[in-house]
Amino acid sequence: MKFNMVTKSESFTSPDFGCKPEDREINDYISHGVINLDKPSGPTSHEIDSWVKRILNLEKSGHGGTLDPKVTGILPVGLNDATRAIQLLLTAPKEYVCLLTFHQDIDEERIREVFAEFTGKIFQLPPVKSAVKREMRTRNIYYSTIYEIEGRDVLFRIGCEAGTYVRTYCHNIGEALGVGAHMAELRRTQVGSFNEKNRLVTLQDVTDAYHFWKEDGDESFLREAIMPMERAADYLPKIIIKDSAVDAVCHGADLANGGIVELADNIQKNDIVAIETLKGELVGAGNSLLTSNEILEADSGFAVNVNKVLMKPDTYPRFWK
Question: Residue 134: which of 124, 143, 122 has the closest Cα?
């Protein structure tokens, strides 16, 4: 996602510390990388994690947003140090393509009417088998576009808030129409800024890329299969900070207004924001304490309550006391 950036102060970055994410040495690039993986039907998301870890000989890996075994599509996987960055995707908006099947014949016009009603804020009760407490909650459906209706089958694309259960969505539409319905097939096509056009790879692609590197010394395929962990935060509004502010944030300090160089122009209070260096490295994330305009006008005080630190301390020199 694109945000308009505005300048708060002038600053420059020293070439002696840190580096552009794309320029990391290959081992560091892998350990700070994410894979936009095309999950096949069958294995669990945790099994995919373990296979990626074994293929790349890693200490750890983790995915952003679990998919049921039979569901295919986008499964972002964080590698080693990037496993914490991948957690930023848990609140990211999602998109799916779904095949819904009604249990009885139903008029096409009525189907389209009910789909239109099931947009905006809806109420959902999570399924019995779910990782969250089973209580009624609201979720935002950004769009629900019908592609094709053939008999009792409906093919549609849905963009929704994180935590939306598409299986429940299909069931509720069937109830609203009084004929019953179930989710026949599901594919996830987007998680935050990860989509099917953004370097989507298979497990075989990752395996081949790793062997090209290990056997032939060609790391280009691996750099194509893996993206810097910074891409996991691309859907969030950003705040760019001075070199002198980086290490304080790395040690757990909240971000002071004096350390800010640039910021997205649409930040609202309590928004989750990504904090980056002038080289584009992801330092951390947190909740904004001010709006964009308030940050631009502030000479002192704090702008962000930092709750996730993603850069190791001492990557940049210590300027604080």
Answer: 124
